[in-house]
Structure formats: C-alpha cells, structure tokens
Design goal:
- The complex is a heterodimer of chains A (342) and B (637).
- Chain A is built from 19 helices and no strands.
- Chain A is mostly helical and 342 residues long.
- Among the domains of chain A are: 99 residues, V-type ATP synthase subunit C fold, CATH 1.20.1690; 104 residues, V-type ATP synthase subunit C fold.
- Among the domains of chain B are: 117 residues, Alpha-Beta Plaits (2-Layer Sandwich), CATH 3.30.70; 125 residues, subunit c (vma5p) of the yeast v-atpase, domain 2, CATH 1.20.1460; 69 residues, Alpha-Beta Plaits (2-Layer Sandwich); 85 residues.
- Classes of the chains: A mainly alpha (342), B alpha+beta (637).
- The interface between A and B is small, with 9 and 12 residues.
Chain lengths: 342, 637
C-alpha cells in the first residue's frame, strides 16, 4: 500500500482536485435555467462564457480540449503499463476522428470540409492526421494508419477490409479491435486496479454490446452469427453464452426479458435503444463514481474520472447545443440523459 | 525602428477586377513583399470565395505531387530560367491535378504491392523461425495436423524437469512421448496415443506446464521439404522485389519530365492559391488585403503596374492600435546578428509593437559568455575552430567567433591562458584573487539586466495601450520602484545603517499598488482571492530576489573556470613529462567541451528566464509574404 501511496500520490491529488468539477445531476440541471449557466460552468471548471457560444462545433471542440488537457495532465506523471493504459483509454476519442476520416475518404468528401469536422485532440493527438486526411482510398488510409500507434489496429482492419470491402465492417473492426486491446491492457495491470477496471469497463462493455446487438439485429437486420461476431464478449454481466442467446432474439422486449436479473430490472419498461443506452450508461457511471470516491492511490481513479468527465462534458454539450438551437426543454433533457441518470 | 523594433508596416488594400486576380497574385509573388491578411467571407448568391476552387485544386495537386516525389524519390530539377512567370489557369491546374491523381494511383498501387511483399517476406521469416523448432522432427509435419479418427496427437514443449514424470504419467493412459529437440532446459515433444483419454491427458498436461505449439498450415511435409518450399518462396519474393524495382525505375523514367513540369506549374500557381483567404468582395470587383513593409510600397506599386493591364487601386495606411496583434513583424539584421536572431525566434516572434530583443540578447550573451569563460587560449581555440568549420557552421560562424573573441578579451583581463595564470599578466585581476568582488559585480550586472528588462516591459505595455499593466503590476512600474527600494533597503542593511519607518513605508507603497492590481485582476471568491493575492504578492518579491541571485552564476562560473584549471594543472604535475602534457591537453579539451557547453546553456537560460520571460511576449506573427519560389530546387533539398 505504501508503495502505491508514493507511486500515485501526485496522481491521486490531481484526480481528487479534478473530481471536484464532476457535478451532481441536480446541479447540471441548472444549465437548463437562464441565468444559472455561468455559475454551473464555473463549478464544472469550465469557462463561464461557454454558454454564449452559438456554434455547436466550436462548443464541442472547446469541451474536447478541456478533456484532452486534463487527460494529458493525468498521464504525465504515469509510466509503464499505467501510462500506456491511460493513453490507450483516450484513444476512444481518436476513434471518432478515425471514423470521420474514413467516411470522408470513402465518400470522397472535400478535404477542407472534412478537416473542419475533425476534433482537435492536442496535446494527446497521436494520429498522423494530415497524411490520413490526404489519403485517396482506404488502402492508402490504412497504410498511413500503420505508421501510427494504431498500427496493430490498422493491420487488423486491413485483413477485414481485404475480405469484405465494406465500410461498416471496417468501422466495426476498428471498434472491436480497440475494445479488445483495452481489455488486454486492463488484464496486464496490477490485481486491484484490474478488478476495479474490469467491473466499470465490464459494465461499459455491457452497454456497448447490448446497444450494438440491438442495432445490428433490429435496425441493420444482421444475421445472429454475424451480429455476435461483432461483439466484445468481455462484459460484466453479459458473457459469451448470454450474448449468443441474445443474438438469436428478434425484438427489444425479448432481449430485455432474456437479460440477467440485474440488467432486466434496470431496463424494465424501455421502449427504444436510446433508453437502453442511457440506462446502461447510468450503471457504469454509478460504478465509476462510487469507486472514484471510495478508493485512493490507484490508476483506476484517473481512468474513471476521465470516463465521468467525458460523459459530463457530453451532457453539457447536449444542453448548451440544445439551448443554442432553441430546442424544447424536454428534448434537451432527454438528449443530455438528465431523466435517465442514476 | 528596424533594429530595435519590427519594421513599420502598411495595411494595404488592393482593389481590382476579379479576372485580374491571377495576374495580381503573380505580381505579388514576384515582388515578395505582400503578407496576406485573412478576411472573413460571407457566402452569397455570387458563389463561394473568389479563387476557392483554384485553391482546393492547388492543394490537392501539391499534396499529390509531394506524395509522388516522396514515393519515387525524384527531386524535380529545374532552373530559374524555366520558371518564366505566367498565369496558371484553373483549367490547366485541374488537368494537372487529374494527371497527378492518375500517377498517384499508380504509385499507391505500387506502395500497396511493396507492402504486400513485405508482409510475405515477414511471413516467410516467421515460418523459417518456427520451423527451427521442428527441424529435428524427421516426419511429415502434415501428419501432426488436423483431427484423426483413432489417434490423438499433440506437439509442444515442457520444462525438461517434468519430462520424465510426464512420460511415465501418460504411459498409464497409453500415450507415448517422443522428444525431438532439447533447448535451454525445455524439451520439445510429440505426444501420441489412442483417442478416448483426452480429458485425463488434458489435466496431466496442464499440471506439467505443457505448452502446445500450433503447426502453421504451410508445414505439410517433412521439415526439409518445408525448408525447400520456404526457400522457393523466398526466391519468388526476391524476384518480385526486383520486378517492383524495375517497375519503379521505369516509372521514374516515364514521369520524371512530367513531374518536373508539374513542380514548375505548381510553383507558379502557389501565389494565387495562397492569396485566396485574403480576398473579399463580390461580383466583378474584389479586394486583396495584407501587409507590406513601408519601405517596399514603391516596389509593390511598380510591380503591380507592370503586370496589371486592367487598372487597379492601391490603398495603404498605418495599422491602428487594435490591429497591432495582427500585424506581422519583420526585421532585417546584419549577418553578424542573424544567429542571435535565430536564438531569439527559438523563444518567440516579437510582436509588431514590441522591442525586438536580438541586439540586447547579442550584446549580453557575448559579454556574459566572456565573463564566465574568460581564457585567451580557450577563446582563441573556439574562434579558430569556428573559422575552420565556417562552411559547416554557416550563419552561426559569427556567433562562435564572437563568443571566442570575448573569451579572449576577458582572458586578457583575467590573465588566463589555457587555465595557466602565470604566463600572462592580467590587465585587471584573476577571478580567484577576489571572489567577493566578482560576486558583487555579478550582482550589479544582474540588477542592471533586470532593470533594463523591466524597463522594456513597461515600454512595450505603454505602446500597446495597456497602461494599468505597465504602471501597477509586479513586473510594471510599481514592481520596478519596489525593486529599487528593496535594493536600497538591503544595501543600507548591509552597510549596517538603520532602516527607518519612512523607508519601510516607501517600500510598502509600490508593493501595495501591486497587491491592489492583483486584487482587481482576480475574480475568484473572497477567500480564494485573498489567498491568490497573498501568494502572488509573495511571488513578486521572491521573483525579483531569486532572479537577481541567479546572476551570481556569472561570477560562479568564472571562478569555476579557474578552479577547474587548477585541478587540471595539479593532476598534470603529478605526472611525468609525457603524462604532464597529455593531462594538460586532455584537461583543457575537457574544460572547453564540458564547461564551454555548460556556460553557453547557462547564459541562454539567464537570457530566456531572467530576461525574456519578463519583457518579451514572443507571440507575434512572422512576416510571411507570398513568394514566387524561384530558387533552384537542388539547392533547397
């Protein structure tokens, strides 16, 4: 324990200070009321004038910059596996850019317009963005991606793409490879961190698996074996067997009814996939929040903080964007998951 | 102006007909004095920004050409005579872009083929490595793969120590163990038995730490045969590599001329493409906005008059105070100051209104280097080496010559020749003869340096119209007065004189102004605000004190130089004749390399942190004119 204290003392202090900016849902709801914005944003350690930003893309970019700078702050004092894990964890946001770039290349989008949609991920940007942006086909894109820290992912995606030249399969391959890599990295850290991470990330993977499964089966009408193949059987509640069984079901109600008790109760009465996603997200949010507050001197806290912070920033973005666009409060509440949060 | 502050600029608006834009771009490119200023553009029924499509085509073609050149390793060779200024039309640029797209697709396919080949070579290498494990197994490896009706076969390795026990244990269920290779206390074995006892076998194998080895599909013959097949694949890969090399060579031949012409065309098109962001206006009339050095206005007018037949209007004015942050900064330095300018720009670009610290940096750097590393011999060696290596050092030669020169001057003052203080009579004194005087002088130097830096801060802020910051902050006038009074107080204390209440009150007054300024600047809640003001106020005091003390290193290194030399001479005197000279030479090389390097770094540190961080914001915009790149490409690369 004492070695953990000395090893993570700085990180622990940093996370504790940053965690003060994680607001309870009730406080976040204050953003819905006119006049409260500045104080809520100040409490969330964000620039007070952010609510005056009318361009949703600029708003998103500013919030993303906050997240990336905080992540860089937490990664800096780490070394070895911990550092590698946290950097990889932030790779999730790189996937957003990667998919955007990929879609732009497949649809031959104008490079300038495509570049303007990319998130500025400094200071943690480790993608060769310019080379990727100027790729003229998927093969060149993957060749350039092989020159980045995502080289393994690129090689895997290339195999998939050479067999089935489908953008959908390619994107799924990127996601799948990312999360498989995440599980592998979590399994490599110390036992205590591993158990904590497996719980929270397991719940997160449950959410991803369930939502993907429902989309693949009910919306894209993908066959059960193909849908199952695209999942990541490393969840907390949903293991291979359950996922295999769920993949064969034909409706949302049937899937919910076949879930393990803990999830079935949580998802009782859901009417669509968005509700499933929000309620499942609340589960991992709750677990991450609990472990963030209840433990100390470990790298998991940094990971959970970044997960919670990203979600909170997304909710803030949804509210501010909704307000800038003049949407109804009900709609904003729903999109910011203020109704569904635990 | 010029040497101490960036050159005065004029904000220029060039009104002209839309059709004349390419010709104007060419004229501006040839002239090379116009730095475009990005303009907001409202999209309207008149379509997008004038030249937007042109710019997109240019960028696409440029990226494609660069990728092709990198792939083919061609350096397009052309002379300035071939770069005859002419307008490159959008149609020509489009055709070029399409041609480059076609060439790049071919190159991209080649890269893909090369990548596949690399992958195949890697596979052969991996298979060859794996085959080593099975080389001693003289059977058809294909027989060890796949499911069989009666036989259960496993291949793998286990610790040598477990081999005997495993052999005995599996014999109980009818399996035999054949060892085919032993390496580093590991036994490589083949286990074979009749089917039916797989579960019992599995538990024994687990207990014995048996690690299964998967046989690659390719291993479907005897190891020797597989080896032969791998050699065959290797030969095929080599042939493919040669084939690709021949293809590449043909491609180079086929496209070299086209790529050369493409490079010329893109250089001619570059000024127009670069200017697009500076264009505003709708319909037939457009406006180009940018910055031009005041002394180049006539040159610009002449160049435009020569190229534009349809007439134009050129308006220019001095920048307003609000525009100052956008104005690019340009200085022209004599060759001797250029290496110093590079080091200053390594820290940042001076703002348009800001004092350029290059001259101050050059003088203080050279002086401090000499003070800290004063030695006639070492300085002369530096200077001679710099002159000898002047072709390699290029523009940094004057820098090294000056450093060596001041080292010689201070060496004469200190009476030091290669660390020996008995040959030359010092014109002043040896540093070690009065260290206190040296330290005092260093402090005085530091005080002067800080006063000058703070004075420049105040001047820069006043020019920018930031009066409150110039007068009331810790690094403004209030801080400067406080610093002077603090020095005076400390001086009186050092002299044993009494420090009365009036002096303390006078010391407190500017400090109070600093605190009030901090208070006004901070908008945090009360307790946090008090805390910030107290801490930052304390920091203001500490910064002045620590920055001043930091200059003690100037004296410390001059003492250090003598001390190191004494150490070298003491060591040398312990040796015989040859050892004596060898130690002297090696010791002096050691001093020059190690101490010389450290002194240079320390001086740079003093300049950057004690000087620049006070008065130099370094957030200016460099002057980047649109230029028709005429230089011979061979010289560039």
């Amino acid at each position: 324990m004492s070695s953990e204290v000395s090893q993570y003392a700085y990180l622990n202090g940093r996370v504790s200070v940053l965690a003060e900016s994680l607001l309870p849902e009730a406080r976040l709801r204050g953003l819905l009321q006119v006049g409260n914005e500045a104080s809520v944003l100040r409490d969330a350690a964000l620039p007070e004038e952010l609510h005056e930003e009318r361009d949703p893309a600029v708003l998103e970019q500013r919030l993303m910059s906050v997240l990336m700078h905080e992540a860089a702050l937490l990664i800096r004092p780490l070394s070895g596996l911990d550092r590698e894990l946290l950097r990889y964890w932030m790779g999730r946001v790189h996937l957003i850019n990667l998919k955007l770039l990929l879609r732009g290349i497949v649809t031959h989008a104008e490079r300038e317009a495509l570049a303007s949609h990319l998130l500025d991920l400094r200071p943690l940007d480790f993608l060769p963005t310019q080379a990727l942006l100027h790729s003229e086909d998927v093969a060149e894109f993957l060749r350039n991606l092989e020159q980045s820290p995502f080289s393994e992912m690129a090689r895997y995606a290339r195999t998939v793409y050479s067999e089935r030249q489908s953008q959908f399969d390619l994107e799924s391959a990127l996601d799948h490879h990312y999360f498989t890599g995440l599980v592998k990295r979590i399994n490599a850290v110390g036992e205590r961190d591993r158990l904590r991470m497996r719980m929270v990330i397991g719940l997160y993977l449950d959410q991803i698996n369930l939502v993907w499964l429902l989309r693949y089966r009910l919306i894209y009408r993908i066959t059960p074996p193909h849908a199952y193949f695209l999942l990541i059987p490393a969840g907390h509640h949903l293991h291979s067997k359950q996922l295999l069984a769920l993949a064969q079901l034909e409706s949302l109600d049937a899937v919910v009814a076949a879930l393990p008790d803990a999830l079935r109760e949580r998802l009782a009465g859901v009417e669509n996939i968005t509700q499933v996603e929000l309620r499942m997200e609340a589960l991992s949010t709750h677990a991450a929040n609990r472990l963030l507050r209840a433990t100390s001197f470990n790298v998991s806290r940094a990971m959970f903080y970044l997960l919670l912070r990203q979600r909170q920033l997304m909710h803030i973005h949804a509210i501010l964007k909704g307000r800038a666009l003049g949407l109804a409060e009900e709609l904003i509440r729903a999109s910011a998951s203020l109704e569904e949060a635990v | 102006m010029g040497l101490f502050t960036p050159l005065p600029m004029r904000r220029v608006s060039l009104f002209l007909l839309r059709e004349e834009l390419p010709a104007a771009a060419l004229a501006l490119g040839e002239c090379g004095v116009f730095d475009p200023q990005q303009q907001e553009y409202q999209h309207s029924e008149h379509g997008g920004r004038p030249g937007h499509d042109y710019q997109q085509l240019y960028r696409s073609a440029r990226v494609r050409l660069d990728k092709i050149l990198a792939h083919t390793e061609i350096a397009p060779d052309f002379t300035n005579e071939e770069l005859v200024p002419r307008v490159v039309s959008e149609v020509e640029l489009r055709e070029l872009n399409e041609w480059l797209g076609m060439v790049w697709r071919e190159c991209s396919q080649c890269e893909e083929n090369q990548r596949d080949l690399q992958e195949r070579e890697r596979t052969v290498e991996q298979l060859r490595h794996t085959l080593k494990n099975f080389a001693m197994l003289d059977i058809d490896l294909g027989q060890l793969q796949g499911e069989r009706v009666f036989l259960d076969i496993h291949i793998g390795n286990l610790p040598e120590a477990s081999l005997k026990r495993l052999t005995d244990a599996v014999s109980l269920i009818g399996y035999t163990v054949t060892v085919y290779l032993r390496s580093e206390q590991t036994a490589h074995v083949v286990l074979a038995g009749l089917k039916g006892a797989e579960e019992e076998l599995a538990s024994v194998l687990e207990a014995a730490s048996f690690r299964r080895m998967a046989l690659p599909e390719e291993f479907s013959a005897t190891p020797m045969e597989v080896q032969r097949q791998l050699r065959e694949r290797e030969r095929s890969n080599q042939a493919r590599r040669q084939e690709l090399a021949i293809e590449m060579s043909k491609r180079r031949e086929r496209y070299a001329e086209g790529l050369r012409k493409a490079e010329v065309t893109l250089r001619l098109a570059a000024p127009h493409a670069e200017l697009v962001e500076a264009v505003s206006g709708r319909g037939a009339l457009v406006v180009l906005t940018g910055w031009v050095p005041e002394d180049r206005m006539a040159q610009l007018r002449a160049s435009l008059g020569e190229r534009l037949s349809g007439g134009f209007a050129l308006e220019d004015r001095a920048p307003t105070l609000e525009e100052c942050a956008q104005v690019p900064s340009l200085q022209r330095f004599p060759a001797i100051l250029r290496p110093f300018a590079d080091l200053v720009r390594n820290y940042g670009i001076p703002r348009y209104t800001e004092v350029d610290p290059t001259w101050l940096f050059a003088v203080t750097f050279i002086l401090m280097f000499g003070m800290m590393f004063g030695d006639v011999g070492h300085g002369a060696t530096f200077a001679l080496l710099a002159w000898w290596q002047r072709k390699r050092l290029k523009q940094y030669t004057p820098f090294a010559l000056l450093a060596g020169g001041t080292s010689i001057v201070f060496g004469l003052l200190y009476g030091s020749l290669f660390g020996n203080e008995h040959i030359l009579t010092p014109l002043w004194m040896s540093p070690l003869s009065d260290p206190i005087l040296m330290l005092t002088l260093a402090l005085v130097w530091g005080v002067g340096f800080i006063l000058l830096a703070t004075g420049l801060t105040i001047r820069n802020r006043l020019v920018d119209g930031r009066y409150a910051e110039a007068l009331a902050t810790g690094d403004g006038l209030a801080g400067l007065v406080f610093y002077l009074l603090l020095l005076f107080t400390l001086y009186r204390l050092a002299q044993g004189a009494e420090v009365g209440l009036p002096l303390l009150a006078a010391l407190g007054a500017p400090f109070l102004v600093v605190l009030i300024s901090l208070w006004r600047h901070n908008k945090a809640p009360l307790v946090e605000r008090i805390l910030i003001v107290v801490i930052e106020g304390f920091e203001t005091v500490m910064k002045y004190v620590s920055n001043t003390l930091s200059f003690l290193r100037v004296a410390a290194f001059s003492l250090n130089h003598v001390a190191l030399a004494i150490a070298v001479y003491t060591l040398a005197e312990m040796m015989q004749q040859t050892g004596y000279w060898l130690t002297l030479v090696l010791g002096n090389i050691f001093i020059m390399v190690l101490e010389g390097g450290i002194v240079a770094i320390q001086v740079l540190r003093l300049e950057y942190y004690e000087g620049f961080s006070r008065f130099f914001s370094g957030d200016g915009r460099p002057f980047k004119p649109v230029v028709l790149e005429r230089r011979h490409i061979r010289e560039e690369r």
